[in-house]
Write a structure and sequence with these properties.
Serine Threonine Protein Phosphatase 5, Tetratricopeptide repeat, elongated, eight-stranded antiparallel beta sheet, 15 helices, Jelly Rolls
């Protein structure tokens, strides 16, 4: 892994170079050249070490950065680190003895040769040698996670957060990974208490896995953002935990759990968010908006088949009758239909066509279909045309 290093903004490096040229014009040729080359090296070193070496072959910073990049790539790929990479680093460090790189190199060599335990003391030594260097803490966090010490791993991530401003978002996924390994939310609560800016980022990162629901719930405070809710709801739906997904969604949006309707927002006010509210997916192919008089005003420009609206439903097994009226404007509404699909298996269980007189059809939900996608789709014919219609609120009833 390349070691993070400070960078100059591009205009700053140019200013330094210009200063060096001014010194040269004043007669300080040697000093000017050194300043120019060192500025170019330091400006290029973080992300272009090879370019830095062209500016000053053998410059310790450039040589170390270039070799450490190659060593980091080898470590990430779990390849042995060749002496041809490490020897130049050791030699460069002899010219600049107060460096941490020898310890990092030795640690990576130990790791890639299967001696993870030997890497720990070397990385600790590097961190002690330069407490403000970020690389040792990053390596140590990964090391502690590998050897099954998640508490220490989180401690190192906490130190990184203090060393690198605004790093909470980038480190949140790694923290979430370590939390899962730790087997409980207690440690991350302590880390978040010390670093409040982490809370929302970590909650979002944890929410990408439905198994983390209890961890996330344990991190909530009255001040917490709800940005994690749609992420976790989608994760729960993806994991087939539909009832838990609905309970979380309903709680977050003030929806009563009792007397749950067959379809949410059948009148298309489009105020409730997905997945149990409508997702509007028509995009640039048209427009689907709430009609002030009730229902959905739809404009479709034809062209390719497109999903206009969809929502996740939790219809119990049984038979249902679907009905809807159409107020025609222009175009043929026969290009529209409602499609019912079982989530998980993606098995199509019903389709209700829409004509000029509206839509009427029967849907059979099988016993193994615990959740469904209800979607309004447009499938244009051979001669696409613009469609402008208003659909009435949905009337969906269960057959006794």
């Amino acid at each position: 892994m390349p070691m993070p290093t400070p960078t100059f903004p591009p205009d700053r490096s140019e200013q330094i170079v210009n200063k060096g040229q001014a010194f040269a014009l004043a007669g300080l040729v040697l000093v000017g050249l050194v300043v120019i080359r060192d500025a170019v090296v330091r400006a290029s070193m973080p992300d272009r070490p090879a370019q830095a070496l062209l500016a000053w072959p053998g410059h310790p910073d450039a040589l170390i950065a270039e070799r450490m990049t190659a060593i980091g790539q080898a470590a990430a790929a779990k390849r042995p680190v060749d002496d041809a990479l490490t020897d130049p680093v050791i030699e460069a460090v002899r010219r600049s003895p107060l460096r941490i790189e020898p310890f990092l190199v030795a640690a990576v060599k130990a790791q890639t040769s299967g001696h993870e335990a030997a890497a720990g003391p070397l990385l600790v030594a590097a961190a002690d040698r330069d407490p403000r260097a970020t690389a040792p803490h990053l390596f140590l966090s990964a090391h502690y996670q590998t050897v099954g010490q998640p508490t220490q791993s989180l401690t190192e991530l906490g130190r990184l957060i203090h060393l690198v401003p605004n790093s909470a978002g980038a480190l949140a996924p790694k923290i979430a990974e370590v939390v899962k390994q730790a087997g409980g939310p207690g440690m991350v609560r302590a880390l978040v208490a010390q670093n409040p800016e982490l809370r929302d980022n970590v909650m979002r990162a944890l929410s990408t896995d439905a198994a983390n629901l209890d961890y996330v719930m344990g991190l909530r405070t009255p001040q917490s953002s709800k940005d994690w809710v749609p992420v976790m709801t989608a994760s729960l739906v993806g994991a087939g935990q539909y009832d838990r997904a609905f309970a979380l969604w309903a709680s977050a949006h003030g929806v009563a759990l009792a007397n749950r309707p067959l379809i949410f927002d059948p009148g298309f006010r489009l105020e409730l968010p997905p997945p149990f509210g409508w997702t509007v997916g028509i995009g640039t192919a048209g427009e689907a908006v709430a009609d002030p008089a009730g229902g959905l005003h739809l404009t479709s420009y034809g062209g390719d088949a497109v999903g206009i609206l969809s929502q996740t439903a939790l219809l119990a097994p049984g038979a249902y009758v679907f009905a809807q009226k159409v107020s025609p404007g222009s175009g043929d509404p026969a290009v529209l239909s409602w499609q019912f699909t079982c989530l998980g298996t993606q098995r199509k269980i019903g389709s209700v066509a829409i004509g000029r007189g509206g839509a009427l059809g029967r849907i059979e939900v099988p016993g193994d279909c615990r959740a469904q996608q209800v979607a309004l789709v447009s499938t244009p014919g051979e001669m696409p045309e613009t469609l402008d219609v208003t659909l009435s609120p949905i009337d969906l009833r269960r057959v006794p």
